[in-house]
Amino acid sequence: MSKKINMSFKTKIKIALLIILLLAGSYWYWWYDQTIKLRMEALQVVDDAESFTRIHSAIEVEFLRCQQFITQSEGDFGSFEYCTSFITWVNDNNLR
Q1: Distance of alpha carbon 41 from alpha carbon 66, whole angstroms
Q2: Which of 2, 47, 70, 83 is the least crowded, having the fewest Cβ atoms under 10 Å away?
Q3: Phi-psi region of 73 (alpha: psi -120 to 50; beta: other; left: phi over 0)
Q4: Using one digit for the tens of pLDDT, what is the confidence trace for 24-33?
């Protein structure tokens, strides 16, 4: 003899609501976690962009300094070689 488990309608509704609540909570946690990850990634991209801007500005300043140094034609040979190499490097890499 097997017993039939007879659940009432209210019990079935409670179980269904509990399952729906667990699924909604799981989805919310996943969404929140993904949002935090995207926010951290966006902050890293902003930091990288700011760093790039600072580096690009420093390259521009050094490029202009080297151009002035070469046009003056005075100074030691090592600085002249550095400046010509630097200007060539900037032009070869399209940094200007």
Answers
A1: 37
A2: 2
A3: left
A4: 999 999 999 9
